[in-house]
Structure formats: C-alpha cells, structure tokens
Amino acid sequence: MTDSAEFVILLDEPNSEKVSPKSNEFVYLLDNEAVADDGAELEKASSHLALPTFSTVDGVVALYQDLAELAASSESSIVVDASAVTDADTAVLQLLAVFVANSERSGRSVTWYKPSSYFCELAEQLDYAKYLKLDSAVASL
Predict the structure, then answer these.
(1) Phi, psi of 56, rounded to the nearest 5 degrees
(2) Contact 119, 87 (CB under 8 A)
(3) Which Pfam families match (predicted)?
(4) Which pairing describes strands 19-21 and 28-30: parallel, antiparallel, or unpaired?
C-alpha cells in the first residue's frame, strides 16, 4: 500500500463506485484500492489537470472527483492548467487550496501552468494566492 494520507471534502452524495460513504460519518472517502484495481483507469490517469473555463460551484463535485483520482494516481508532481479560467468562485478555490496542502503533505508538488490573470487576481483578492502557491504568478501581474 502506498500513501495512507486521505483527501476528503464533503460535497454531495457520491456518484461513483470509487467513492463510498463511510458509515456513521458525514465524509466520503476515495477508495484507493478500487482505483488501483481498475487498470483502465490507471492507464488514463495523468499528472495533469486542466481546469474548466467556468470553474464554479456547479462543477465542484466533478472537480473534486478529478482531483481525488489525480492524487491517487500521481507519485511526485501534479500540473494544474488554469489558463482557460474566466469565471471561478470561492468553492473552487477552497477545494484547490485543500488539494495543494494535502499534496504537499503527501510529498507531491503542485505546479500551475499559465494561470489566467482572472484566476490569479481572484485568488489574490480572496487571499487564496498563498494557499494555492500562486504568489509568483500574482507578483508577475
């Protein structure tokens, strides 16, 4: 078994067979063994994720699932492409901040690929740039 750290955020009822409710609690855990047993999913797995243009609360459940699968399949570094983001909200920034912190605790680095000026400015205005490790991108604006 690899890393025992967990990346958990309560969002909604699970809609994937890889996510199972933990009894008597309000958290949903990604079943790492289910991911490891599914060879097709591992072959498609990558350490790169492109955020959608509209990264809002409407898509945060899907983003959470993508990030959880990425964390389960990545070993050392993850690249998040935020170049196309033109609309985002606090829910997405919160999810990404927790993901970055969890990745660092697990020994993985998160690198941002050309975050849009909108994304950087929003992160700076809401004081999330430091949690997302976007300080250098914000400074270059």
Answers:
(1) -120, 180
(2) no
(3) STAS_2
(4) antiparallel
Q: At what angle do helices 60-73 and 90-105 cross, to 10 degrees?
A: 10
Q: How far apart are CA 28 and CA 19, in angstroms?
A: 6
Buried b (16+ CB within 10 A) or exposed e, 82-104: bebbeebeebbbbbbbbbbebbe
What is the C-alpha R_g of the chain?
15
Instruction: Please say if the pLDDT value at position 43 is more than 50.
Output: no
CA distances from 69 to 1, 66, 74, 113, 135 (A): 16, 5, 9, 19, 26
Rounded to whole angstroms, the Cα distance separating 80 from 50 reads 6
